[in-house]
Amino acid sequence: MNTYKDYIKEIEERKGQGLHPKPIDGAELLSEIIAQIKDSGNVYREDSLKFFIYNVLPGTTSAAGVKAKFLKEIILGKSLVKEITPAFAFELLSHMKGGPSIEVLLDLALGNDDSIAKEAANVLKTQVFLYEADTDRLKESFKSGNKIAKDIIESYAKAEFFTKLPEVPEEIKVVTFIAGEGDISTDLLSPGNQAHSRSDRELHGKCMISPQAQEEIKALQAKHPDKSVMLIAEKGTMGVGSSRMSGVNNVALWTGKQASPYVPFVNIAPIVGGTNGISPIFLTTVDVTGGIGIDLKNWVKKLDANGKPVLNENGEPVLEQAYSVATGTVLTINTKKKKLYNGDKELIDISKAFTPQKMEFIKAGGSYAIVFGKKIQTFAAKILGVSIPPVFAPSKEVSNEGQGLTAVEKIFNRNAVGTTPGKVLHAGSDVRVTVNIVGSQDTTGLMTAQELESMAATVISPIVDGAYQSGCHTASVWDKKAQANIPKLMKFMNEFGLITARDPKGVYHSMTDVIHKVLNDITVDEWAIIIGGDSHTRMSKGVAFGADSGTVALALATGEASMPIPESVKVTFKGNMKGYMDFRDVVHATQAQMLQKFAGENVFQGRVIEVHIGTLTADQAFTFTDWTAEMKAKASICISEDATLIESLEIAKSRIQIMIDKGMDNKNQVLQGLIDKANKRIAEIKSGEKPALTPDANAKYYAEVVVDLDLISEPMIADPDVNNADVSKRYTHDTIRPLSFYGGDKKVDLGFIGSCMVHKGDMKILAQMLKNLEALKGKVEFQAPLVVAPPTYNIVDELKAEGDWEVLQKYSGFEFDDNAPKSAARTKYENMLYLERPGCNLCMGNQEKAEKGDTVMATSTRLFQGRVVEDADGKKGESLLSSTPVVVLSTVLGRTPTIDEYKAAVQGINLTKFAPSNKQLVN
Q: What angle do CA 670, 673, 677 make, to 5 degrees?
């Protein structure tokens, strides 16, 4: 087999798609290319040189190892290539970021040739992606009296890898491009249905926004070659929804600058803005790439003579334009004054975009370089026995005397690294924290693997308690793309040290359980910090943060994450929940009542929702915490009674044991370790040694919301409001309507029960309703298709044991078969019940979708445009979000039910009930 000729064939195929050669990551292909370079008469030599120099992925890819070895041969004179001098070879090594390149540079720096050693040392002084094996070599050489090692370590102690970088320009000229009105989800920047191509950055870049938008961006760049294009969410927030590094990568690809001339399609420094700022998750990914995210505030609430907001006929604040950012507007960002200008006119203070820490990210080309740089400096100072020179901006430590701690403040204080000993930190502090649990999902996992390779990581950090690689986002359709990508991903992650949904060796049964549900189970300490590669990483134990693929990689590699301690909003409950209501209605009502109380201002945005759930176990409470992603919250924390937390931990133990029994534990017995930790935590709670986490009574909150259960008198539905005349009000998750709004006559084309927003109780509700409807009408006939995707296999097993799965089978026209999974996405649906494989299914939108233009009633969390359902000619697709009983009844009727029909259908059904705790859940 001629790997090179196969590569050339692939290049020709890509030309037809308007694509360049795919970057090389394999050793076999690069070895063949090197052989052709060495053969001076080879017909492919010129192209091979270009591929070798400009088209090889860096880090720990097998190709990077081959490239570094050949460059070493050139530097030592063992191979002669006239186009690659030893000096150029050193330059190429300097752009390879870590792993094999660092090993080669250390070989040369600690070798016997003084002139080569000095050159290698000069390159090493610019590198930061070093791991223990690398620093151990330097340490041993230093102890042996090696002068070069001493020189390198002294440079690291001074952080010259950072201080010698060019300063951030004082003025940055930008030209605006309105990417859309209203909230812009990452689906617009990186559509879920194109998830398979994310690791092929150039190909994936073609899906950003639209071909027309891409042409408009190129036209702006041609007209303004000296300026950067700033993508803007007009009248909305930029980057809501899914936590996609691929979204920022696409923005950087089109509007940023190339990170290295020798690495294709890896761009940095994007500039984005939003009327209401940038979502917290998206802003993290912007930091990863050394970009800038600006809260424009270019539309403000119109005030009356008394200074109160003017409301429209719908009771919503009227907005007026403070200044224009229309496409093509030239603005100036002043990074020194931290202001935004139009010519000489000052528009707004943008200090939040240019904190000392963010300025460092911009200067270094991304946050990773700062994280690793600080570790290298700390290592060097310790070896030299000197104090760490104050090069980097000190961590901001906010401590308010006499003020208690919220739950998130307590967790951050316990997990903080490198802070002033004994100092109590409050919201606003910048903190490095240890991470306990990490989750990687399968459509971003390929990028996480790339990030791990690029930062030269080869094994999971030993301080991580547990990490899981899911298979849920590709569960619906086992197509050629999934077959090519997922086994490769599982093998990489399994070898890296994660528990993987699929066994690369094929011993245990492949599991497609929804990642958030698994992470919720393997979190066995409510004091834990969890990082997961999905915005719905919102656990009901501990505090969890949805993150981009890069932050997940960083957490896996270092066991740490860096972020400010967020402010919190306290949510408590009063009143009584009506017997015919479901807890999902309480979740929607929370958002509606919050928006009503604060005159349309979303006080949850960017903050932690501390929900005093009290009496609901982790499974049921997850319905609330999961939704907080759509509330635009940064995270959520459940405050539970002791007995409730113990019950939740016992459930978690049993599910982890199932994973062990399946053979999923690894050589380090990570899963058994989690059971041991759960047992320890249960013992602490029972003995009173360490009760369940609660905030202090004198903690300070940004706001407090009391949800009145008495006001919830009918099912509540989140509506995308697709025909709202104000585009910015569509697809926001903020339009919450009672069932009666629809008058019992809104046509429903498809129902979906599943994904992470449902638990075992929802599946039992479905079974009970089907039995009730049959008893009432003699048979069950669906007037619209009903797609059901249980969250996990263990739920399916429990339903089988309890007889409910048999009920579902009776009414289904399709049941998943793991031995013969679907190889193509369904495009048409019949009016029947579909029992789909556990996983994300329609909610993810990358495989299965409703028919175009459908009105979908779903338990999902996603109502973004085009996510669950795309628009058809003449009819917009819409995904209305509701409780399980509303979805069931809507598909049986083919329309929204009336409140009387709903009450009759749920009579005697054991819905997910909730009663507020009667205990004081504070210290």
A: 140
Find out whether 838 and 513 touch, Cβ atoms under 8 Å: yes
**Cβ proximity of 758 and 479 under 8 Å:** no
- DSSP 3-state helix, strand, coil percentages of the chain (rounded to 5)? 40, 15, 40
- What stretches of 527-612 show up as alpha helix (H) in DSSP? 549-558, 583-597
Each residue's pLDDT tens digit, 421-478: 889 999 999 888 999 999 999 888 888 998 898 888 899 999 999 999 999 988 888 8
Buried b (16+ CB within 10 A) or exposed e, 283-302: bbbbbbbbbbbbbbbbbebe
- Spatial strand order of the sheet with 430-434 comes to 416-417, 430-434, 560-564
* Alpha-carbon separation of residue 332 from 82, 254, 335, 472 (angstroms): 45, 20, 9, 44
**List of E strands, 335-389:** 339-342, 345-349
Nearest Cα neighbor of 260 from 423, 93, 107 is 93
Cα dihedral sign, 389-391-392-393: positive
Cα distance between residue 125 and residue 154, in whole Å: 9
Residues 773/905, Cβ–Cβ less than 8 Å: yes
For the chain, residues with pLDDT lower than 50 are 1
Cβ neighbour number for residue 907 with a 10 Å cutoff: 11
Half-sphere exposure in the Cβ direction for 12 (13 Å, CA): 6
Q: Crossing angle, helix 804-811 and helix 793-802, to 10 degrees?
A: 100
**Residue 540: helix, strand or coil by DSSP?**
coil
**Longest pairwise C-alpha distance within the chain:** 91
Measured CA to CA, the distance from residue 491 to residue 811 in angstroms comes to: 38
Q: Tokens in use for 48?
A: 């091979």
| Residue 158, both tokens | 């001074």
Q: Which of 685, 686, 669 lies closest to 526 in space, CA to CA?
A: 685
DSSP string over 262-282: TEEEEEE--EEEETT-B-HHH
Cα–Cα distance between 89 and 382 in angstroms, integer? 32
Residue found under tokens 């006239």: 82
CB count in 10 Å sphere of residue 823: 11
Kindly give the interhelix angle for 793-802 and 642-662, rounded to the nearest 10 degrees.
100
CB atoms within 10 A of CB 259: 21
What 8-state DSSP symbol labels residue 699?
B
Write the pLDDT tens digit of every residue in 708-765: 999 999 999 999 999 988 888 888 888 999 999 999 999 999 999 988 888 899 999 9
Sign of CA dihedral 342, 343, 346, 351: positive
CB 272 within 8 A of CB 278: yes
Contact 830, 851 (CB under 8 A): no
Burial grade of 410 (CB within 10 A; 0-12, 13-18, 19 or more): buried
What is the distance between the alpha carbons of residues 486 and 484, in angstroms, rounded to a whole number?
6
Give dist(CA 241, CA 269) in Å, integer. 22
Q: Is the dihedral of CA 72, 76, 78, 82 positive or negative?
A: positive
Q: Please list the residues that pair with 814 across neighbouring strands.
A: 834
Measured CA to CA, the distance from residue 886 to residue 869 in angstroms comes to: 19
- pLDDT score recorded for residue 243: 65
Residues in the chain: 923
Distance CA 362, CA 127 (A): 17
Closest CA to 410 of 554, 566, 521: 566
**Cα 837 to Cα 193, 228, 475, 598, 840, distances in angstroms:** 18, 45, 7, 41, 9
How far is it, in rounded angstroms, from Cα 538 to Cα 519? 9
* 212: its two tokens: 């027309």
Strand residues in 616-771 grouped as ranges (E): 635-640, 703-708, 716-718, 736-738, 750-754
Contacts of 331 (CB under 8 A, 6+ apart): 173, 174, 175, 176, 230, 325, 340, 341, 342, 347
Specify the 3-state DSSP secondary structure of 332: strand
